[in-house]
Amino acid sequence: MDLILALEAAVLDGPAQTPPDVRRAAATLGPLPAPLAAYVDQVAHRATTVAEADLDALRAAGHSEDAIFDVTVSAALGAGMRRFRAGMAALAAAEATP
User: Fold this and answer.
1) What is the pTM of this model?
2) Which whole-number Å values give the CA distances from 81 to 17, 44, 65, 72, in the listed order?
3) Which candidate, 51, 49, 16, places its Cα nearest to that of 27?
4) Is there a contact between 71 and 79 (Cβ–Cβ < 8 Å)?
5) Averaged in consecutive runs of 10 residues, what is the pLDDT profile of the chain (98 residues)?
6) Distance in angstroms (rounded) separating the CA atoms of residues 75 and 69
7) Coil, strand or helix at 64
8) Which secondary structure element, helix H or strand E, spans residue 91, and what is its range?
9) Residue 1: what pLDDT?
10) Can you list the alpha helix ranges (DSSP code H) found in 2-64?
11) 97 with 75: CB under 8 angstroms?
C-alpha cells in the first residue's frame, strides 16, 4: 500500500505543468472548467473513445501538451484507484461473509 500512496503523491503532488489542485480534481472527478471536465470524464469512463479531435479541442482552449498529459495521467490514475479500492472492498466483504 505504501507504493500506491507514493504513486498517488508523485502524480498528484509532484512537479508538473498543472497545479496539484487541478490534478487532484482530475483524479477525483472534481470541478474543472470546460472542456477539461468533459475530457476527464471521458478518460475516466470511456478512455478508449478519446480521439485526436478531443485533444485538438483542449489545445484550442489553450492547454499545452504537458498540461494535457498531466490531466490525462491524473484522470486515469483516479479511475484506476477507484476500481482498485472497489475491488479491495469487495474482497474484504467476501472474506467477512461466513
Assistant:
1) 0.92
2) 22, 11, 24, 14
3) 16
4) no
5) 94 97 98 96 98 98 97 98 96 90
6) 10
7) coil
8) helix 65-96
9) 78
10) 2-13, 20-28, 36-46, 52-60
11) no
